[in-house]
Design goal:
Blueprint (H helix, E strand, L loop, with lengths): L7 H17 L1 H23 L12 H12 L2 H4 L3 H21 L12 H6 L1 H14 L7 H20 L4 E2 L2 H17 L4 H14 L3 E2 L4 H11 L3 H18 L6 H12 L3
Parallel strand pairs: 1-2
């Protein structure tokens, strides 16, 4: 598959990971191609033909989470590759438009949002902040972003605090993302009211209990913390085993595996 449209730096990185993965464990290389290389090539080829690729098509928070995690895999290449930067910016624009359309009001038929739905909304916010850290680009923090993040904060206030939920899915991750918003509102967009809203919500979330993380997420975080290659290899193979067990059904385990693989190769 052709990656010629990418910078030389990106092509070298992709070739290195694919080649070394093949040498260590051919199954690693298969997941890397399916999860990292093929979606990237699909985006590039469809862009050239003025067609919309799968990464940019979706209408649910499951798509929101998965596409944000997919795009985050390419962040290490973004600083040296204009094509990658353009792709991530496009993904973020699609995300914020989806949020603004789907959550035009926090009162939608009086329905209560699931813990998973509320948790997934944090992923485009995380991606926007990490994209800024990698590239120093702030163009994604537009009025579209401000509107979307404001709607998400309001929804979190209503569903996590106002409804009296005592247990929150991935609470620490949620608090981390809210801290990103605080920094953005304070130093970049200069929205004092939204900064205060984020700060207040963060303080109130601290007292809530947290659901135990899913096993694959716990394994992934452990893999980021271990220091030796042998330990990381063990966890990568455990994630690979989990992928075979559940056959990718309704999970992001392949994306967690690929993210840890990049960490393993110090990308």
């Amino acid at each position: 598959m052709n990656t010629i449209r990418l910078s030389m730096e990106s092509r070298k990185s992709i070739f290195r990971i694919e080649t070394l993965s093949e040498e260590i464990n051919p199954e690693w290389a298969i997941v890397f191609r399916n999860c990292f290389k093929d979606p990237l090539v699909d985006y590039l080829e469809n862009k050239e033909k003025n067609r919309v690729c799968q990464l940019l098509q979706g209408s649910s928070t499951k798509w929101l989470q998965r596409s944000a995690m997919q795009a985050s895999l390419y962040l290490p290449l973004a600083s040296n590759d204009e094509m990658i930067r353009e792709m991530i910016a496009h993904v973020l624009k699609q995300h914020f438009e989806f949020v603004n359309t789907s959550y035009s009001s926090v009162e939608i038929n009086g329905e209560e949002r699931s813990k998973a739905e509320l948790y997934r909304l944090s992923y485009p916010l995380q991606l926007a902040y990490l994209f800024y850290l990698r590239t120093e680009d702030i163009s994604q923090f537009s009025l579209l972003f401000t509107s979307a993040s404001s709607r998400i904060l309001a929804l979190w206030e209503k569903e996590l605090i106002g409804s009296g939920k005592k247990v929150i899915l991935e609470k620490e991750f949620l608090i981390e993302v809210i801290q990103y918003l605080e920094e953005i509102f304070r130093n970049i967009t200069r929205h004092a009211a939204l900064e205060e809203q984020a700060f207040t919500l963060k303080k109130r979330l601290v007292s809530h209990a947290e659901f135990a993380s899913q096993e694959e997420h716990a394994l992934f975080r452990k893999g980021l913390l271990v220091e030796t290659y042998r330990e990381k290899e063990k966890i990568l193979n455990l994630l690979l085993g989990k992928m075979k067990e559940i056959q990718y059904q309704d999970t992001v385990i392949d994306l967690l595996f690929c993210q840890l693989l990049l960490n393993y190769f110090k990308v």
